[in-house]
Design brief:
The chain is mainly alpha-helical. The chain contains 21 helices and seven strands. The protein has two domains: 139-402, no CATH class; 412-530. The longest helix has 33 residues, at 377-409.
Length: 535
């Protein structure tokens, strides 16, 4: 059965989708709702994010830049001097909205995350409606794409679906704002691409057909997560070229491709110029792009039951290779995997939205193979009622597991929070603190830190050694290297503020390096010092 672009969605369908998407969005926010139950120590303060705290702290620091009325991106979790560049406009805008509305930036981030999830779930249904006319199969596709995951709940060690990943739409919405928006863009782009590839579509792109969709969502995707644009662009180009040669319509197909690629080219060229012309920017973006690619075994486990359901659909797709359906999904799936495992630097970003083609073939197999074998409707509903919880079980683990470690991973003594407010008002500074504290200081104070750990900081190992030497020093000569930029990946920086609290004292009790500093304030167990300016 060949796909056809339909796109018609009735009011009753929208109500069904909106209800389902709202329920899923509430589940996405559930850990934040349950968090106060777990955080029972009033002396500790929640820092703002529960899942993937390092990554969350990174994006929340960008929100803080916007909230402080900044428009240029800087990597606040590393000490190197930076003038700022145009990047990550999504989180800058979230911060600016927080400033304008008076809402807390962290609160607005989580609201935006839920809204992005709602948009993503609706986009997935739009894609299903663009492929199938049968209501039941649309819902099967949407359900698997939205909540599908693998056997991580059964084999948790190393499985791709137990670590929180953009491979899975539901988990993407647990992590941040840009991943669910990127998956939504991929869904809309896929719907437009399938329309362009339809054998009976001889029209040229325009603003009154799918051409406008290609323009809008290629630009948005290039702005928020350009890595995900790679596989879908390669797939569209390859299929258009083959179709153009086979059916002698290269000019028409070239126009469709240009409508998708050309609007995004200035953004991609800008990113390329930045990374090739400025080594520091290249290192920072490489650090940010180190999404790990799961090994083949964990990846297959992470696809799990949806992948098994999809096998007959994939086999039929290989045999028939319909250009506007199975061919696109097969080539896109292959492009994701090949690019993720062969191209350095971007790593796991290429796998974003992997469950979309898997869900497509699972729905196709359900329509062509599994449902015909279950003629009794009651049995169909029973099987679906059993399978849906199984394919979603890993999400429950990813969603709730961080609550067990919340007290240790995403909180700090409340005295630090008071110190952060002081540090925020000291002008632009580089702050020296323990790595655990430095993860969250940029989120609350909007200042750069020396070292926040290997996931966030350039030359983190050398800087961590310098930080340790400062707090354990027996000789005043050991104090100056870290204050003057020891371990810097590019140029030098000057530390302006030093925090000393429980985490710093856990590194070392020495006060040798503190004696020359100017004491500013003390909040409970946390002391704040200013480093005198050096000539």
């Amino acid at each position: 059965m060949q796909a056809r672009y339909t796109g018609q969605v009735t009011a009753a369908e929208w109500r069904w989708v909106t209800t389902g998407a709202t329920i899923l969005a509430l589940f996405i926010l559930l850990p934040m709702i349950l968090l106060p139950i777990r955080l029972t120590d009033p002396s500790r303060a929640f820092m703002g994010a529960l899942h993937a705290p390092d990554e969350a702290a990174q994006v929340l620091s960008i929100v803080r830049i916007g909230q402080d009325n900044g428009w240029l991106w800087r990597a606040l979790h590393t000490g190197e001097a930076q003038s700022g560049i145009f990047a990550d406009p999504l989180y800058i805008v979230v911060g600016q909205l927080a400033r304008i509305t008076g809402l807390d930036g962290i609160t607005l981030f989580h609201i935006a995350r839920a809204l992005a999830a709602l948009f993503m779930f609706h986009a997935l249904y739009v894609l299903g409606a663009a492929i199938w006319t049968r209501l039941t199969i649309r819902r099967v596709f949407w359900s698997i794409a939205s909540v599908g995951a693998g056997f991580g709940w059964l084999i948790p060690s190393g499985a791709a679906d137990t670590v929180g990943s953009g491979l899975y739409p539901f988990q993407a919405a647990l992590l941040n704002v840009h991943l669910p928006l990127a998956i939504a863009c991929l869904a809309f782009l896929s719907a437009a691409i399938l329309d362009a590839l339809a054998p009976d579509n001889t029209t040229k792109p325009s603003v009154i057909n799918s051409g406008l969709t290609l323009i809008v969502f290629s630009i948005v995707l290039a702005l928020i997560y350009p890595q995900a644009l790679g596989p879908v662009t390669v797939t569209f180009g390859a299929l258009l070229a083959v179709d153009g040669v086979r059916r002698s319509r290269l000019r028409r197909n070239a126009l469709w491709y240009l409508w998708m690629v050309t609007p995004a080219l200035p953004i991609l060229a800008y990113n390329l110029i930045l990374t090739t012309s400025y080594p520091l920017i290249s290192m920072l973006w490489e650090l940010r792009g180190r999404d790990t690619v799961p090994a083949v075994g964990p990846l297959l486990i992470g696809i799990g039951l949806p992948g098994l359901i999809a096998l007959p659909g994939m086999w039929r797709g290989l045999r028939r290779f319909e250009p506007d359906g199975s061919a696109y999904m097969l080539v896109w799936l292959a492009a994701m995997v090949v690019m993720a495992f062969t191209l350095p630097f971007v790593y796991g970003g290429f796998l974003t939205g992997l469950m979309i083609p898997v869900a497509y073939f699972a729905a196709r197999a359900t329509e062509d193979v599994w449902f015909p074998r279950l003629q009794n409707r009651r049995w169909r509903y029973r099987v679906v009622a059993v399978i849906l919880p199984l394919i979603a079980a890993s999400h429950a683990a990813v969603m709730l597991a961080p609550l067990e470690l919340a007290q240790r991973r995403v909180t700090l003594p409340a005295d630090y929070l008071r110190a952060f407010q002081l540090v925020r008002g000291t002008g632009r500074q580089v702050v020296l603190a323990a790595p655990q504290v430095s993860v969250w200081l940029p989120v609350w104070a909007g200042q750069q830190v020396v070292s926040a750990g290997p996931a966030l900081t350039l030359n983190a190992g050398r800087k961590a050694e310098a930080v340790a030497a400062f707090f354990t020093a027996d000789d005043p000569g050991d104090c100056q290297p870290v204050l003057r930029g020891a371990g810097s990946a590019a140029g030098r920086y000057q530390v302006g503020i030093v925090l000393v609290g429980p985490y710093e004292r856990a590194i070392g009790q020495s006060t040798v390096c503190l004696d020359p500093l100017a004491f500013l304030a003390k909040y409970g167990d946390v002391e704040v010092y200013r480093v005198p300016a050096t000539p």
